[in-house]
């Protein structure tokens, strides 16, 4: 519960004189019955009846009613959370390595790296779809980069493209990491979203010299695009073998992103979840509240108390003239 205008609670100070009057009235209601007495003996005081002693309680009913009215004037409100969603949309481009090593190397059990990449990327898209305000683009690469989709809010279409179109063999084999990253950055150039990111997934070393990863990183830094990089190493216990992790680390560090090393499908899923959490923290959440006014109920209770007091004063505690 919250008060819309808590400063009005200062009106409680007006009740202090009323409390003083109640106490004064309670003293004056103690009658003295002068009984026959001996000369010089002190007067005997008779005890007040129960009904008379309870008469000051009627004043407490009115005091409570006045207190409820003051609280009602301050507008107490009961609030509850209706929905929580990112305050602003995020523009994301997924860049997925579709080289032959992704198709034939297994990441865990019978699941290939490509199968795991598709599954986890689809889960990531489904999570972003729940926010309702994120746009996602899709780039696949081997020796060349292939833009499968520009930025779009139609995340169901992105999901279908990842499932059907991200395949090895559609273009010549190779690892054009720099070219693919540059294509992703180009998709984000016209974006005015609160956050613009590229998520790059690869298991190899750039072997297409047209645009190097470092050149693409410099452009990303210049235009304010963050690069999140995910590396799938062939040799789990060795760093830099068949995967230039230093390049991926450099790409992330230079643009304010993070590098993730995924040695199995669980770590791959954790990497995408971490990216989602990091971006939500950057953008923040917008909370939608529903508010219910409590003042009418307090005024109703105050009215009942006043009516009760008046009824009691005119019946059981009625004063005879």
Bin the helical content: 40-55%
Backbone structural class: alpha/beta
Question: How large is the radius of gyration?
Answer: 38 Å
Quote the distance from N terminus to C terminus. 47 Å
Overview of the molecule:
The chain has 2 domains: 2-80 and 293-314, no CATH class; 88-283, Rossmann fold (3-Layer(aba) Sandwich), CATH 3.40.50.410. 45% of the residues lie in helices and 21% in strands. The chain contains 11 helices and 11 strands. It has a 6-stranded mixed beta sheet, sandwiched between helices. A 3-stranded antiparallel beta sheet has the order 1-2-11. It has a two-stranded antiparallel ribbon with strand order 4-5. A hairpin with a 2-residue loop joins strand 4 (106-108) and strand 5. The chain is rod-shaped, with a radius of gyration of 38 Å. The model is unreliable at 44-48 (pLDDT under 50).
Ordered list of secondary-structure elements with their pairings:
Blueprint: E1 2-3, H1 15-28, H2 50-53, H3 56-73, E2 76-86, E3 90-97, H4 100-104, E4 106-108, E5 111-112, H5 113-131, E6 135-141, E7 145-152, H6 155-164, H7 177-188, E8 195-202, H8 213-223, E9 226-231, H9 245-255, E10 259-261, H10 265-283, E11 285-293, H11 295-314
Parallel strand pairs: 3-6, 3-8, 8-9, 9-10
Antiparallel strand pairs: 1-2, 2-11, 4-5, 6-7
Helix pairs in contact: 1-3, 3-11, 5-6, 5-10, 7-8, 8-9
Brief sketch in words of this structure:
The chain has 321 residues and is of the alpha/beta class.
């Amino acid at each position: 519960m919250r008060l819309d205008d808590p400063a009005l609670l200062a009106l409680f100070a007006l009740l202090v004189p009323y409390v003083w009057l109640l106490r004064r009235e309670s003293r004056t209601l103690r009658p003295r019955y002068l009984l026959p007495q001996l000369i010089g003996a002190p007067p005997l005081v008779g005890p007040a009846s129960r009904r008379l002693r309870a008469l000051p309680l009627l004043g407490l009913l009115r005091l409570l009613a006045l207190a409820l009215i003051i609280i009602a004037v301050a507008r107490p409100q009961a609030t509850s959370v209706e929905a929580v969603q990112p305050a602003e949309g995020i523009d994301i481009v997924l860049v997925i390595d579709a080289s032959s090593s992704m198709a034939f190397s297994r990441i865990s059990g019978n699941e290939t790296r490509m199968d795991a990449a598709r599954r986890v990327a689809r889960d990531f898209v489904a999570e972003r779809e729940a926010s309702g305000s994120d746009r996602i683009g899709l780039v696949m690469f081997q020796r060349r980069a292939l833009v499968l989709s520009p930025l779009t809010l139609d995340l169901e279409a992105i999901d279908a493209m990842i499932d059907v179109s991200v395949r090895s063999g559609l273009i010549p084999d190779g690892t054009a990491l720099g070219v693919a990253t540059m294509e992703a950055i180009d998709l984000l150039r016209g974006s005015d979203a609160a956050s613009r990111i590229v998520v790059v997934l690869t298991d190899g070393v750039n072997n297409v010299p047209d645009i190097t990863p470092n050149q693409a990183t410099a452009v990303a830094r210049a235009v304010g695009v963050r690069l999140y990089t995910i590396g799938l190493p062939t040799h789990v216990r060795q760093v830099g073998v068949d995967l230039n992790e230093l390049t991926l680390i450099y790409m992330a560090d230079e643009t304010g992103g993070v590098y993730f090393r995924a040695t199995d499908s669980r770590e791959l899923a954790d990497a995408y979840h971490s990216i989602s959490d990091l971006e939500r923290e950057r953008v923040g959440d917008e909370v939608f509240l529903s508010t219910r006014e409590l003042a009418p109920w307090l005024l109703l209770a105050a009215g009942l108390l006043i009516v009760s007091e008046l009824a009691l004063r005119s019946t059981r505690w009625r004063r005879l003239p």
